[in-house]
Design a protein that fits this description.
Radius of gyration: 28 Å
Structural class: alpha+beta
Number of helices: 7
Number of domains: 1
Largest sheet: 7 strands, antiparallel
Helix content: 25-40%
Shape: globular
Order of helices and strands: EEEHHEEEEEHEEEHHHEH
Length: 339
């Protein structure tokens, strides 16, 4: 698969004095990586947290090897970013209360999409005219929606939309990452959108889908998305990143039965050849009737197959390199406010 084409736009918005969003795109041994981080804290140096996070994620993923699964490396990069942001104030960088969100998309040479996130920066998949959210917000408002307290429509421009339940750094009591252990197979025409809540928190998904459905270049679509957020008030920093993989076409459904028929025919020929060889060997080894009147049938012992060890492929949510599954936290207590 050739390298994905991508475009990004970021804007300070109409009501902020500083743009705390950060984004980056780079290659690593596992494929092409795209990152969006939304710093939190305002005067608490949210832009410093977002910068440290993007740099740390790139540093860790640049050292990735195929010995471990991609979701492991995504988790590891976010854990390293969390530690780096927490330790930064001891080095004179930022403040103890600074934090950031993060969403990462990895597009592998195997035509697969892997991702991980924490906070309310989102990843969308636009496929065949429909917009599919691949992440869920770790925020108080998202919890309200899931619990049925408010409708999804009421979540837009909600007064408590800045309250996160999970983040990198910050003053959160828990740190959890969502990273699916199974990749998404990429199809021709797929388009991925990474964005901060300056877009997703103010622009309805129907409008986002309409913009992505146009035939404009990616750069123009990114500008249109930012303009849509600004037209809704531009109350927050706005960052969008569009990635368009060039997927290989999958085999045609008409070709699959043909390939299956060839495989079955080859298997049948191999079985018939084996039976014929066994019959000939049996006939040639049988004693002649003239030499032995009462021939005794020889019983060939059938060797039982040895017990093979089946590797345990169950993924567990531990810190081992092979673990990948991330249980969802039960959210019951009101969160702390991070702005």
């Amino acid at each position: 698969m050739s390298k994905p084409t991508w475009a990004a736009e970021t804007h300070i918005g109409h009501h902020r004095q500083l743009n705390e969003d950060r984004y980056t795109a780079f290659e690593c041994p596992l494929g092409q990586v795209f990152v969006v981080c939304d710093g939190m804290g305002g005067h608490e140096a949210g832009e410093v947290a977002a910068t440290i996070a993007t740099q740390t994620i790139q540093e860790i993923l640049s050292q990735a090897t195929p010995d471990y699964t991609p979701d492991y490396w995504l988790r590891r990069s976010l854990h390293a970013a969390h530690a780096a942001v927490q330790q930064a104030p001891q080095k004179g960088l930022g403040s103890p209360q600074m934090g950031t969100t993060a969403v990462i998309l990895l597009i592998s040479p195997q035509n697969e999409a892997w991702w991980a996130h924490i906070g309310d920066s989102r990843l969308y998949l636009y496929r065949r005219g429909k917009l599919h959210p691949l992440t869920r917000d770790h925020s108080l408002v998202a919890w309200y929606v899931e619990a049925g307290f408010i409708t999804p429509a009421a979540a837009y421009q909600h007064p408590q939309s800045n309250q996160l339940l999970l983040s990198i750094g910050g003053s959160k009591d828990i740190f959890l990452i969502e990273a699916p252990p199974i990749p998404l197979p990429i199809q021709p025409g797929d388009l991925f959108l990474l964005c901060s809540d300056g877009l997703s928190g103010y622009v309805p998904e129907t409008i986002i889908a309409q913009i992505l459905s146009t035939s404009q270049p990616l750069s123009e679509k990114a500008k249109a998305l930012v303009h849509a957020a600004l037209s809704q008030g531009g109350y927050d920093n706005i960052t969008v990143l569009l990635a368009s993989p060039t997927a290989r076409s999958s085999p045609s459904h008409k070709r699959l039965p043909y390939l299956a028929g060839i495989a079955l025919l080859a298997t049948g020929i191999a079985i018939l050849a084996g039976l014929g060889a066994f019959y000939l060997s049996e006939k040639s080894s049988s004693p002649s009737p003239e030499t032995t009147a009462d021939s005794t049938r020889t019983h060939f012992p059938t060797s039982s197959p040895s017990n093979s060890t089946i590797p345990d492929t169950t993924r567990k949510d531990t810190t081992s390199p092979r673990s990948s599954q991330n249980p969802q936290p039960t959210l019951s207590a009101p969160p702390k406010t991070s702005n």
